[in-house]
Amino acid sequence: MDKEFITIRQKETAVKVQNTRINAVRTKDIVKKGVRVYKDGKIGISGAVGDLPDDVLIENAVKNLSTNIEYPYKLSGDRKDHRCYNENPMTGEDLLKYSEDILAVLRRDYPEFDFSESISTTEVQWNMKNTAGLDLEYRDAIIYLGLILKEKKSANLFDGFLMYFGRSLDMDKFWAFNRDYLAAYNNSVPLPEGDVLPVFTFQFNELLGFLANCLNGERYAVGSSIFSGKLNEQLFNDKIVLKQNMDPIYTAEPFFDMEGTVLENDSYTLIDKGRLTGVFTDKRSADMYNLPHTGAASGGYDDMPMLQGAPLRFDVDSEDIKKALGGRPALLVAVSSGGDFTADGSFAAPVQVGFLFDGERINGKVPEFTMSSHLNKMLGEDYIGTFENKHLYLGEGLTLQGFNMKITK
Amino acid sequence: MYRFPEGLYVDVRIEETYETKISFKKTALQQQKVRSNKGAFIRVFDGDRWYYSSITDISRVQESIDILAGMARPNPDINNHPIVKEFEVNTGTVLNFSERSVTDIPVEEKQALLEGYLHLLDRPEVVHHTSYYVDNKTIKSIYSSKGTAVTFDKQTCGIRLSLDMACGDKKDKGTVSKAAIYFDELKNLCGFFSEQVEKNIQFVREAEPVEPGIYPVLMGPEATGVFTHESFGHKSESDFMVGDETMKAEWALGKTIGQDLLTIIDDGTVSGNGYTPFDDEGTRGKKTYIIKNGKLTGRLHSTATSAALEEPLTGNARAVSFEFEPIVRMTTTYIEKGDRPLKDIIAEMDKGIFIDTVKHGSGMSTFTIAPARAYKIENGKITKPVKVSVVTGNVFETLAEVDAVSEEFELLSFVGGGCGKMEQFPLPVGFGGPYTRVKRLSVQ
Q: What is the DSSP string of B55-93?
């Protein structure tokens, strides 16, 4: 009987902020353990919050074998890969000092705003080991600054965010960007003329979520994806390269999937120069539908590994936003909440906070608007490009992506 | 039970959870998981700052109290601090689910129940499906240095059928679900699930893109629930209001913000996902009229916001799990039912959109609803299905645009998912209400 062990340790210090002052400090020390046993082509699982002894968890997993859930796949094994993505985590004491400093500047220089929510530093360690020789370790430490911004003259719940996500915080860069950003809040400008305008986003979750549904290997194989049957077809603009990207630099998640698969270069190309070249799979879906295995098993620490979503990322394909715009005014989406795609790819979303953008700097806050388009146009004729984010200090590894979109005031 | 240091307010929340999750992909069992976990959240307050700790080793609660106390500055007058004075002191045990507990049902019986519904999905248009049975029973104990010592439980269970559908080139996903408190309530639901599956298939087969524009929108109980939660519920969470004079003025109690027919309630005592007999600070759950006959009459509070705004406690301090501190959240929030039959409301609509079910919603200055199933209303009748990306409205204007609420009324709970507020997601909440008409909303 093979055995597999997943252990997640998380230590966090979070500073909770209300009315631009620290009102609480929270620490977490959490251990979660999952155990799987494999016998005669079956799998049994168990898990617990807390540092329970392995033999208790093994006993529970063995009992779970009675469910007769088949798992006739070769275990990932014979691999040791230990990685640490941040050897110098910010300490709780440093976090408090940085937070006090940031909030003092915000109180002094930006009394027209109120800031609340949290700034945190989180250390995580994931271990996945099994009796087939697998020994994977992912360690990381992430600083997350997420402050709700509220204009004191506004009756809104909130009017935007200050954010940063990364492994170190460069205060000079932080203030250089955020002083421009906060100045833009105080400079209301009208929307540029035109029904169709260049729109840039830096975290287009609706698009990535919709593509994840379409590129799910199981959905592709059974015919419920709008991409079904289109493998090797040119779907989009020939600049576009989209990958299942497991690189923790971007995801702050383990470089391995929940079946212990490690991809070459931590990525697998699904759309290459606009052509559909693959769909993402776990071991079960790859076997069942005769598709290449891409190591996309997900699930909780104590779940059965299964195919759900996968971390997708567009490659940078363009260099200079300003040049691409050719002098046209563009919009930068700072907050867009609640939009969605219809099943056939039509898209609409309100933009609650947007800025006028020249490709490098944000130059004023525009009124709320709605952006709309269709997947085929957004990633086809109306695709401007995916750019390295050189100017907006919002987090590590963020890209800026531009599309020409229909704008409704 | 615990040694509470002098000069500090301290509370400890211990959560014991029991959960079952069973899933099938098509007819193959994918997972059968039963878990029991324990964790604790400790808070220490010195009158100036809070200190929190979340731990999974329950034997270290006292050690955590002492560590947090070491970070705090003892305050001899802590019991006269406005927040500390505001805390309710409750004692007792409210275990409503010792009988008919989901923990007493064999997992095989739960699996068999779910498996018994799978044949309803054996339709050519349903090309794939994933089905879930889930249950959760949580027992919480809260102890405070003021003397609170309460233990209470809550329980939910449910079935969710997630469908991948294809009718030729038309493809979509759909979800059919039923939430309940007791396992027995999930039995004999073939008729309900069958009808919902049929509606989903019909929608995929026949839905056409909507003509974008401004429409009168009629919302079913599910959509009304999401609308209420997103358009106004979050506005009533008073942590957004502490220290904010503009919001206090805009949302002053007594202000008229809707027609007489509009009454919105948050009620922690209602059975379902939002059931909160005590909140996570040990305050007893309450029924709060947020809007009564169109006038703003109340807000939702934690102890800290109640003290800051000098308004009564409402029992709305909730945490998503033992890993987080309680913050102001809704419980079961709904529009009270009206006195008009639904058929009369529809009959007077020449043109409009009916939102039956919802994928998700959000609420900032603009609230959004992303419909799952929506239909045209033409000449007083609900007619063809339409695909809608998003319905939006301005939170400051839309409540005044509610011009009809039906006598038909239903409270609901989602199976899986819930409400998100910053880092705390998903919190189970109850929602629902009557069929509700809004005169003008933007439909894209």
A: ES-GGGHHHHHHHHHHHS---TTGGGSHHHHH----EEE
B-chain residues within 8 Å CB-CB of A335?
A: 364
CA A407/CA B375 separation, integer angstroms: 25
| Residues of B with Cβ-Cβ distance to A162 under 8 angstroms | none
The greatest distance separating any two alpha carbons of chain A, rounded to the nearest whole angstrom, comes to 68
Task: Give the residue extent of every domain in chain B.
Answer: 9-206, 213-443
- Does domain A2-169 fall under CATH 1.20.210.10? My reply is no
Confidence of residue A154 (pLDDT cuts 50, 70, 90): confident
Q: Flag if B325 and A25 touch (Cβ within 8 Å).
A: no
Residue A87 tokens, joined:
């050897």
- Omega before residue A53 within 30° of 0, cis: no
Chain segment A271-280, per-residue pLDDT in tens: 999 999 999 9
Class of the domain covering B9-206 = alpha beta
Decide if B52 and A158 are in contact by the 8 Å CB cutoff.
Answer: no
Whether residue B276 contacts residue B285, with contact meaning beta carbons closer than 8 Å, is answered with yes
The interface predicted TM-score of the complex, written ipTM, equals 0.90
Q: Please tell me which residue of chain A has the smallest CA distance to B204.
A: A343
Is A206 in contact with A351 (CB distance < 8 Å)? Answer: no
Helix (H, G, I), strand (E, B) or coil at B124: coil
- Nearest alpha-carbon partner for B304 in B9, B6, B3, B5: B9
Range with the poorest average pLDDT among A112-116, A339-343, B221-225, B434-438: A339-343
Sheet hosting strand A242-245, strand order edge to edge: A275-276, A267-272, A242-245, A312-314
Stretch A167-171: mean pLDDT: 95
Q: Are A131 and A4 in contact (CB under 8 A)?
A: yes
User: Within an 8 Å CB–CB cutoff, is residue A54 touching chain B?
Assistant: no
Q: How far is CA B283 from CA B13, B247, B315, B318, in A?
A: 13, 26, 5, 10
**In whole angstroms, what is the distance from residue B265 CA to residue A83 CA?**
52
Over residues A225-278, the pLDDT tens digits come to: 999 999 999 999 999 999 999 999 999 999 999 999 999 999 999 999 999 999
Nearest to A4 by CA among A83, A82, A84, A71: A71
For CATH 3.30.2290.10, the residue range(s) in chain A are 2-169
Q: Mark which residues 230-289 of A lie under 8 Å from B by CB.
A: none
Q: How far is CA A58 from CA B156, B192, B305, in A?
A: 29, 40, 46
SS3 A210: helix
Q: Please tell me what DSSP assigns to residue B21.
A: E
Query: d(Cα B435, Cα B183) in Å, to the nearest integer?
Result: 28
Q: How many CB atoms lie within 10 A of CB A55?
A: 9
Our CA-based measurement puts residue A353 at a distance from the nearest CA of chain B, in whole angstroms, of: 10
